[in-house]
Amino acid sequence: MISMLVNEHYRLARNRLVQLSFLVMPVIICLLAIFFLDLVKVNNGNMLNYMSIIASTLVVISFLGIGVAGTILSNEFQNGTIKLIMVRPISRAALLFSKWLTVIFYLLYLFILTFVLSMAVGTLLFGFEGFGANGHMFGSILLNYATGFTEALMIVTFTYMVSAVFKNGAFSIGVGMAALVGGKLATEVSRLLEWKGGMMLLFANTKLDQYFFGNKPVYDEMSLTFSLAILGFHFCFFYGVAWWFFVKRDISV
After folding, report:
1. Cβ distance 17 to 66 under 8 Å?
2. Percentage of residues in the chain with pLDDT exceeding 70?
3. Considering the chain, what is the average pLDDT of its residues?
4. pLDDT exceeds 70 at position 171
5. What is the phi/psi pair of residue 24, to 5°?
6. pLDDT for 138-154, tens place per residue?
7. Using 50, 70 and 90 to split pLDDT, how confident is the model at 101?
8. 76-112 b/e with 16+ CB inside 10 Å = b?
């Protein structure tokens, strides 16, 4: 499994679009730093305020992850290389898992890069002013990252499932992006309409920060345990469908 992960990482690292994707968040961080410097002239800003603004842009990583999840498996079918890969003494389940895990590592790298770089830029521009007095704000930022990673993990797993079923990268990416935008919209609409069935929606449960620091859940009946259970159900369904279609059916290009 380790050798498979290393190989998938190597192949992913050679992808020009993936290489460029690692510049997206640094560019956003630098542009927002320029904007935030102007804002500080009017309001008293500090490093944590700046990091909080960066944390609100983490959905961008979800979109980047959708691009990788939608193509890492389907491209093997579209390029005709899937049969060559399956000649090797590896199981289909192991191949499916190694590619999915590579996507998750890709997300993790982007989240770590964003967090470290935003803290470095924030410290360089504003120092540690306000850090001690606003320790709870740092905890809130960490929760924002946890929420962002949870959303990204779930949506890329969904996109990966679509890719395994339909074997088409462009279609998988389109469906993944539509699900991300539409899912968030559906959650907001169900909340406004006070439709209790909305508690079962994926994106009503990905916001883990709604249970901390006095925040109010999307629905009063919801709890952290409930949300984790719903997320677990969605994840098992997404990955289970991907496993069934990839492992059980005949490999055809």
Report:
1. no
2. 91
3. 87
4. yes
5. -65, -55
6. 888 899 999 999 999 99
7. very high
8. bbeeeebeeeeeeeeebeebbbbbbebbbebbeebbe
Query: Where along the chain do its domains lie?
Result: 2-174
Cα 177 from Cα 174, distance rounded (Å): 5
Q: pTM of the predicted model, to two decimals?
A: 0.90
pLDDT of amino acid 157: 98
CB 142 within 8 A of CB 48: no
